[in-house]
Structure formats: C-alpha cells, structure tokens
Design brief:
The chain is mainly alpha-helical. 62% of the residues lie in helices and 2% in strands. Helix 7 runs antiparallel to helix 13.
Length: 375
Amino acid sequence: MKPDLQEPLLKKSDIIRLTSALILWGLTEGLKLLFKAHPDWFFPAFRRFSRGFMKGLSAAASAVPFALWEYLILVLILAAVLSLVLVLIRRRRRIMAWFTTMLLIFSALFFISASAWSLNHYAPSLAEELGLEKEGFTEDELYGAALWFTEKAAEAAQLQKREDSGCLKEDALSFSEMAALSGKAYEKLADEYEIFRGGSEKPVKSMTVFDSLIMYTGTSGIFVEFTGESTVPSGNAIIDMPHTMCHEAAHRLGIASEEDANFAAFLACASSDEALFVYSGYYQAFVHLYNKLSETASGRVRTLLDSFSGNEGARLLFDDAGYAAEAYARYDTPVKEAGQKVNDLSLKSYHVEQGGRSYGMVADDLIAWWKMNNP
C-alpha cells in the first residue's frame, strides 16, 4: 500500500505529543530556575522527600540481585529501535509520529528525574549542613592538611592485606561484603547529622550489562534515580572501590552534588570499622589534597614527598597509587574523553559551573574538616 502523498507532515496527534513534550521540558527548566533562585523555599523538605522516595525505590529494586536499571535501558533502546524499523518498513512518512513519541518519553523522564531527585543539586552544600567554614585557606593550611591526610593514609596503608608483590589483596573483601558495608556506611554519621538519616541501607549493586563499557567512559559508578539503585562496575581498583561505593550510596540520601558525595564518602569510610574502607577514604583524601597542592603550591609538593622519605607506610601508599593508575590506563581512549564531556554537560545543565571538575572540589571540604578537627 502506497503512502498517501497528501498526508500532512504533522497530524493532530503529533502536535499534541510535541506540545506535551515542550510543556514538560519547560516545566523542568522552570523548576530548576525556581529551586536555584529560592532554595530556602524547598529545602530541607525536598531532600527528605527525595531520600524517602529513593529508599522506597531501592527497596523495590532489591527484589532482584542485578542492577535493574541496566535492563530497563536495554528494553527502552530495543523498543525504540524496533518501533523505528517498523515505521520505516510500513509507513515511511509517519516518522514524525515516532520522533514525537520519543521526544515525549524523554521529556517525561527528565521531568520525573528532576521532580524525584535531581533538584537536590540546589540544596545547601554538605559543608553548610555540617557547619564547616570553607573560605580563606592559606597555603600553609593547604600544606598542613595535605601532610596530615598523607600521614593518615600512610598509617592505614600498613594495615592492609597484601600479596607477596606488595599489591593489595583483591580478595581482602569480596564485592558483596563491600556492597553490604557501603549500603550501611552512613549509620554512624546518622547519629550525629540529620542529613544522613532515613536513607536506604540496601547493598550497592554491581553492574553487568554495561560493566566494561562504563569504565571506558571514565565513569566509576552510577546512581539511577528511576530505580534508586547505586551501582559500580567491577573495573574499579580495589583501593577505590569502598569510597566509590559510598559515593554512590550518598546519592541515595539526596546528596546530588558530586563534590558533596565525595566528601560524604570520605566521612563514611573514615568512620568505618573496616580497615580497607578507612584506607580507601584517606587514600582519596590524599589524592585530592595532593592534586590541589600541585595546582596551587607546586613548589611544596617536593617538600611534602621529602618529609615521608623512609616512611614504609608512605612507600606503600605511593605504590598503591601507581598500581591504581596502571589499572585505569587501559581505559584511556577517545571514548573516555567523550564520556567525560557528556557528564560535564549533564552537571552544567543543573548550573554546576565547574561541571566535571566539581569532583575535585572536595579538597576544600577536606581542608575545612581538617581545620575543625585539628584546631
């Protein structure tokens, strides 16, 4: 049957779908602007709502042992491709129906994402919630913090289970053990701070479908607000895995900022009774403070390194950093650069001006935390 050449490009149903998609997009952007302009109107109430909602979704998703969101994405992709093929085979001119349907679906998903969780990007920072002062650090304070965190990481390095080669034992803790510990990692902190209370304590999940692929995008973990699942790929170095798991678990608490999730993960790891978690937290703190020192006071990096000359814990720490770098080197491809650009744009869409660089901004939180605990 030949298509009706007089058929209009846009039918009434197409216009309705297109209009609905534009309305949803406009509502989403309007909410973002409103939350950005008047966060005091919505917080902490919105964060509490979001935390409870994510807890419910996480509990429902825990009915299956795998990451549910991966399979939902596969179904969505398969449905989109098959429907497009059918459109092209049967009625070539109805491509607009397919396009407007896809546009409406994605607009609805973005609206749901914002309404359920993403608007937490406009919440007060974790530093504000904890009463930390982040302004006016001197170079000496930066150096002092870097020195202290390096010392703590070096001490923790000596308490780890290691292979004869000196590498950390990959089976020091199983994935399931780390997943369960990270799911409950905020219990102690919840006794002191409200922001850590009432969230999901379900184990972090491993990725299966996109496990290797996601590492090539430079992504070490993913939180999905549609299922409340915190997930990590298996390719993370053992030294990073506990901190990464706690980072993704922090997102379930309504902590959307990557900077804040990094800081929350440090606090969770540092308060843990498990040696590997403690080491992972202080190792990440060491990395961020070392990088900040290199950027802003590079002349003092050599002084820092020289101060640990002959320190066995520091030697192990620096070796572990080298092993981790080697483990990630194979994922350095053009795909990683593209993935980081996508993540950067995603963060900037919520007015996070620093984009992907916001992860490293946790250094300021760490300095403030060090000053408060080392007056």
